[in-house]
Write a structure and sequence with these properties.
Oligomer: single chain
Structural class: alpha/beta
Shape: globular
Order of helices and strands: EHEHEHEHEHEHHHE
Mean pLDDT: 96
Distance between the termini: 29 Å
Largest sheet: 7 strands, parallel
Low-confidence stretches: none
CATH superfamily of the largest domain: NAD(P)-binding Rossmann-like Domain
Strand order of the largest sheet: 3-2-1-4-5-6-7
Radius of gyration: 18 Å
CATH architecture of the largest domain: 3-Layer(aba) Sandwich
């Protein structure tokens, strides 16, 4: 299927690894000119090279810290007329509600709610004028299935989800969509960290920790990041213009609810 994306421009935040990188790679394969982003020049250049190897669109690495106003300005200067924005950022670690400080809460809210909203605010008017825009927020399965141990992530990303639901109705007449992708247990570096936490807490091996993660998923396997990237590319396509304000769960069928 031709997704109608050849020649479009995209900013994919936090895309030097993991799900952000998978989204950037999928878009670049479709002919999108992609700005990729990370804080480490070495890892970002490596990711840009790997993405470029399968791309028909160009790949421009921009080293910038999304959590700062200056970092976001640098990204926007590299691509002020983006047709596609994929919001992504490091999520806060799990923890205990009793011990989270005000600084912990402020950091989580900034990184996972305020930063993506700032990027949307600065790009949406141009999308409206061009009558084409696709905004994707990579959030978390915890938005719809909260666990207190992931409360920092859940609270911040639920706030982002609520604000974007309202914005989606404002932007829909201009062919600008906003959708959220809710991953659960994809085989990325984050799952390696989660496995390492399980190893330390349960005194088990890496293989046992990974097996426990896979067993917790209905599909009995972790997701491949390329599956996530391809789903992102479709939501950015011309064919997806009637899909907006939605929360797409990518979890191997694990979520038990109807809505």
């Amino acid at each position: 299927m031709d997704l109608g994306l050849n020649g479009k421009k995209a900013i994919v935040c936090a895309s030097s690894r993991g799900l952000g990188k998978a989204c950037a790679a999928a878009l670049a394969r479709e002919g999108v000119h992609v700005v990729v982003n990370g804080r480490s020049a070495e890892s970002l250049d490596k990711a840009a090279f790997e993405i470029s190897s399968g791309a028909t669109g160009s790949v421009l690495p921009v080293v910038a810290d999304l959590n700062t106003e200056g970092g976001r300005a640098k990204l926007l200067a590299a691509c002020p007329d983006a047709d596609i924005l994929v919001n992504n950022n490091d999520g806060p670690p799990p923890g205990d509600f009793r011990y989270w400080s005000e600084a912990d809460w402020r950091a989580a809210l900034n990184a996972n709610m305020l930063v993506p909203l700032a990027m949307i605010r600065d790009l949406m008017e141009g999308m409206k004028e061009r009558r084409y825009g696709r905004i994707i927020n990579i959030t978390s399965a915890m938005v719809k299935a909260p666990r207190s141990v992931m409360g920092l992530s859940t609270a911040a990303r639920s706030g982002l989800t609520a604000m974007c639901k309202g914005l989606s109705t404002d932007l829909a007449p201009f062919n600008v969509t906003i959708n959220n992708m809710l991953p659960e247990r994809f085989d990325t570096g984050r799952q390696k960290k989660m496995a390492e936490l399980a190893m330390a807490f349960k005194k088990i091996t890496m293989e046992e920790a990974r097996a426990e993660i896979a067993e917790s998923i209905a599909a009995k396997r972790m997701g491949d990041p390329s599956e996530f990237g391809d789903a992102c590319a479709f939501l950015c396509s011309t064919q997806a213009g009637f899909i907006t304000g939605q929360n797409l769960q990518l979890d191997g069928g694990t979520y038990p609810g109807l809505i």
